[in-house]
Design a protein that fits this description.
By secondary structure, the protein is an alpha/beta fold. It is built from 13 helices and 14 strands.
Length: 419
């Protein structure tokens, strides 16, 4: 008999610069929905939240999330239904290798310990899903439109091809707002890539390029109340501050984020991070220092320090043991075989942010998560395409500018959500 199994992750980052309010509620509501509406067994749903009193194995650390997802996929059989819901921060790591074809970002989710999980990690995971088994991912986080690399974009404009088509449509508009929006996005990306955060000034929930630590705002939710919102984006500047606090080091910058993550988490770091370190160590040992922005200098210092202290093998063993078939595997925006058994429903596009809202009565939730529950309550069974289109319409009506996306094969766009 086919199994229905799920992993649900909600991270509020309580007491940190990145604190959110609605992520635990999102997970609790989705848990009830899976059991009551979709017939999941309680024992087949694994929940990871950063709640007070949670056991170490139940905290949403990078290692725990990866372990649960690996188990979810590793135990799957043809006909099984797999589901992953994530509510928390998202971020984007800019390219660091300086290669000509390294032109993209690594979109990431942000576990409670900052041990980032990258888009390529998700893509590699979905490629392991057996034929006849469907893995649905809902990511109510910022920059989530890019979490499944090279998967067909059914609804959205996160991919380069669809971004080009979107801009061509906008360019035919008599308004110059599209160019201003593009220019602002480009400038913001340049500053963010240097670890400098530019606060967004505006009275609506963010759309392109907005970030998560600006002043929270109120928004009309069309439910006779006003929700207080902030964004589920972790700017690089905030990530760097939190890594400095975690490591006690003051010299962390954008060019050393990946190395810092590797040093912090070692073999538990993202496979993409370990592959990156493998390639960079190879370049260093071969004397190829050119074209690596802000990285090789710091890496060389650490490598020489480890060598002098006799810890070279110990410090870099996880990277040296990481199998890399080609250097393209480490690039942001790398080309990869398209995963065919995955469905991604994103809270927004890769250059947008997703809202974390709190009503005057104290109810907190993610905008996408709340929309999904409202749509299911009203319509019951809906296809993946119908769900995303209805969510877009609902969020726009409520005043949000985030645009949920759908990334999957043509066949799976018309399949019923979850069931």
């Amino acid at each position: 008999m086919a199994a229905k199994r799920a992993v649900l992750v909600g991270i509020n980052y309580a007491g940190t610069k990145a604190e959110l309010k609605g992520c635990h509620n999102d997970v609790a509501r989705m848990h009830r929905s899976l059991v009551d509406r979709f017939g999941f067994d309680e024992s087949d749903i694994r929940v990871l939240v950063d709640a007070d009193g949670a056991a170490p194995g139940e905290l949403p650390t990078g290692a725990n999330i990866r372990r649960e997802l690996s188990r979810l996929v590793g135990d799957a059989r043809p006909g099984d239904l797999l589901f992953f819901h994530y509510s928390g921060h998202g971020t984007r790591l800019p390219a660091e290798t300086g290669q000509d074809d390294d032109t993209g970002y690594d979109e990431c989710i942000v576990p409670c310990d900052m041990n980032l999980i990258t888009d390529q990690d998700f893509t590699d995971l979905v490629r392991k899903v057996p034929q006849g088994c469907l893995f649905t991912i809902v990511s109510d986080s910022c920059h989530s439109g890019g979490l499944l690399d090279k998967t067909k974009e059914q609804i959205g404009h996160s991919t380069r091809q669809n971004q080009t088509e979107q801009r061509e449509l906008e360019d035919r508009s008599p308004s110059s707002s599209s160019f201003r929006s593009f220019l602002k996005e480009t400038v913001r990306d340049v500053f963010e890539s240097q670890g400098i955060h530019l606060p967004h000034r505006g009275h609506r929930q963010s759309g392109h390029g907005d970030d998560g630590d600006e002043e929270p705002r109120d928004i009309d939710t069309n439910t006779t109340t006003h929700a207080h919102i902030k964004n589920r984006s972790l700017p690089l500047s905030t990530l760097i501050e939190m890594l400095k606090e975690k490591t006690g080091k003051d010299d962390i910058d954008v060019g050393s984020i990946r190395m810092t993550l590797f040093q912090l988490f070692g073999d538990d770091a993202s496979p993409k991070i370990k592959k990156f370190m493998t390639v960079m160590l190879g370049k260093l040992q071969q004397g190829q220092h050119g074209g690596v922005v802000g990285f090789v200098g710091a890496l060389a210092q650490e490598f020489l320090k480890a060598k002098l202290e006799g810890k070279q093998d110990e410090e870099f063993e996880p990277a040296m043991n990481q199998e890399v078939h080609s250097v393209q595997e480490v690039y942001a925006g790398t080309t990869a075989r398209v995963p065919s058994n995955g469905v991604l429903i994103s809270g927004c596009q890769t250059d947008q942010t997703s809202a974390d809202a709190t009503t005057p009565k104290g109810m907190s939730y993610g905008a996408l998560s709340n929309a999904i529950q409202a749509i299911l309550a009203e319509h019951g069974t809906v296809t993946n395409r119908e769900l995303v289109l209805k969510a877009r319409k609902m969020l726009s009506k409520q005043g949000y500018t985030q645009q949920p996306g759908l990334y999957c094969s043509d066949e799976h766009a018309s399949v019923a959500f979850i069931c």
